Amino acid sequence: MFDTLKLVFDTFGKDLMVPVMIFVICMIFKAPAKKAFSSAVLVGVGLKGMTFITTEFGAVLSPLVQQLIATTGLNLKALDIGWQAVASVAYSTDIGMMFIGVGLVFQIVLWLVKWTDIFMPSDLWNNYSIIVWGSMFYAIKANLAVAFVLMLFINVVTLLIAEVMQKRWSTYYHYPGCAMTAPHHMGDAPMYLVLNIIGNKIGLDKIKADPASIKKKFGFMGEPMYIGLIVGLLLGVVGNIGDLNTMAAWGTVMNVAITCSAVMAIFPKVAGLFASGFTVLTDYSRKTLKKSKYGADREFIVSVNDALGYGETATLTTGLLVIPVCVLLAFILPGNVVVPLMVLPSLPYMVEVPVCLSNGNVIKSWIMACIVFSAKILMASYWAGTFTEIAAGAGFEAATQALEGGTLIIGFIMSNCTAGLITMAFLTMNPVIIIAVVAIYFVLYVLFRKNKSSVREYIEKIALGDKYVAPVAPEAAANGQ
User: Fold this and answer.
1) 131-143 pLDDT, tens per residue?
2) Which residues lie across from 78 on neighbouring strands?
């Protein structure tokens, strides 16, 4: 059964599985079949369009990143080889395949019993980011029960963080009724929430560096298309700094520049297609839930893929500007053993949280992202040895070759600081430590559920600053105040 589920997900992928999930959910909420089908197609077209864009952009960025690494002479023991290695390890054990089915049921039950308002199965694809921790734990401790508890616990922690972030992320990226729940991004959010508050205390929120302010200050040169051109030009020059006396290098520079420009110009249009696919789901979910015991007093929030924010102007700009700093940090951070390679083109995904928290303030987001990356690369360094051994045991050839050559591999999904720390606690097998960690979660969960609106509005206020407008209480609205 679990092998079949894995085969289905591997065969069809997220670009097909998500539209199918959307169609099924729309039908459950009693939307007409024609509208449900139209929504599913729009979502599928949007996702596939995003895949085209990110794949093409990655093909342009990857050689540039490799050139940047080669130019700097960065040579450390562990090599970042991408998320594929992590997924391979995640599904290498029976427990990994079992969680595909068990995790799906668990996430549905969490929504049905109103533990969360987020319907996480709609982004089932990213469950590998949870599974890998359970697979690693099981490989180390051979304890099936505790490994499952670990995965389920990371799942609920991820959902709690995602609920805290939901309004800010969906508001900034213009996806109403949606939440980004990718565990490898939500695991960074606690650090970003703290840094965002500190940033405001020292005045970073006063810097007008969001796309709208940039456009107002620089006119047509502040348009996303031209911002992409300038950022791409700078990145291309940095990546080819040692070969700028050659025509080939300038050809690469201009190609990177025009590609960045194209992504920033095209991505919002594709994202608009995807967002329009949720209109039917939002409308009919609200109508149906009002009459249902499962949702008379709640909103149906759909879990969506992190690709939705990739090409937004401030997000892409921040992600690209972080790349050179990440290479520098890999050089100078004591204790780091990882060469950040495959993660660098993916940095726009990783900065969605700070960008939305700062409401698109590129400078503030950039500073926060650089600080958090420092913690992430050290977390990746901590797990590199264990991950390589387990990946080799799973038959991952790159890991076997690495061990034979005295080197290591890692995927930056393993830099999830929240999940990494939780796994460390569980690996102690100390009941006191594990119970303490779980107790902290329950305390935070209860506090959030009791103060959900206040917490989200505080995050909105921190993000928007002077632009923040407090919501009008229903009683005041009824009295015309």
Assistant:
1) 999 988 988 898 9
2) 338, 408
